[in-house]
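Q: My labmate handed me this sequence with no annotations at all. I'd like to see what the chain might look like in three dimensions before we decide whether it's worth expressing. Could you predict it?
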Amino acid sequence: MNLLFAWRYFRSNKSTNAINVIAWISVTAIGVGSAALIIVLSVFNGFEDLVKGLYADFYADMRVTPVRGKTFHFAGDKIQQLKNTPGVAVISFVVEEKAVLSGALQTIVSVKGVDEQYTSVNRINTSEHIPRGKFALGTVAEPQLVVGAGIENAAGIDVEKPGYGATLYLPNRQAARLSSDDGLNAFNITPAGTFMVQQDFDNKYVFTNLGFVKYMLSMDADEYSAIEMKISGNPDKVKQQLQARLGKDFLVETRYEQNRSLYAVMQVEKWVIYAILSLILVVAAFNMIGALTMLVLEKQKDIAVLKAMGASNQTVQGIFLSEGLLLAALGGGAGMLLASLICWLQIRFHFIKLGGNTFIIDYYPVKMVGADFLLVIATIAFIAVLAAWIPARKAGQQLFSLKS
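A: Here is what I predict for the chain of 404 residues:
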């Protein structure tokens, strides 16, 4: 019954046209606010998925590193134990170290020496991530280098020119001091390809074969910096099994834990965006308060008649609360429908482009998530109840007379 009264009050003619104008302004403001929330959150979801996908292409499902120190020894029996762990599909051994790369210019890089299984634990060796050359690492005697796009520019290297070599300087672990004459081991190396994943990686890493890096660093045959794995099944369950088998001297991290700060920052950014855009709905709430207050004054005689017929204060209050929820539902529903249409058009036709040509895609990515729609609905309902409560309570408590 309350909704019936609310609907009739919304459609009926008022003695003052300003009531209709303010009511429609509040509906429009709620519609704009809800549409903005859905669109911006969907675009944020699109960027979040894109960034996570890029990081997933570089990072392995699971990574094992030593708790203390930079390297660890991992003998054959431990390797077999690791392979027998349920959920572990592929194992790759990695040695990582800081180095100096010299081409036409010099720059500091992080060298990753990887084995033949490395490209099976991630998606870096794909055409979308290797724009020039190929992912070839060479041998111990004739190593080849795959460099990040940023490193290629910083070191002045051209991987597409045959014989355009570079020199890699790695720390000499047997030297007394790094600053001494024999503090660095140098080796001429041939750049074979360029990878492009994400700027953080492109400006930092170069890849070569595991045997060459271990030779340059004078490492033991069973000495490594990390073990990266491709897994199947629940990551948390596999992590627990690996941690139990490896013991407290090893740190086992899922892909999420390897990028914990990144995911945390993205979540904070999303909530900040949500809070800022919700202010549009708060502004709309003030319009709603004005519209409902004027409606209460307009319907004084109706309220008096209802009370004369036995309606309680709560009944009258419920009618005007319903009126506020009706305004919010009309605005919110229209706004979400409009946002859904815009998002669908962007997903289908990519008609809104990104400025510049430096990003991996040239359009705004969009991903609509049901949880965002539920969040917006709950926000609109909460703000509408708060906004309608004041005039509804006033309507329920005041005494009106039928006498004019």
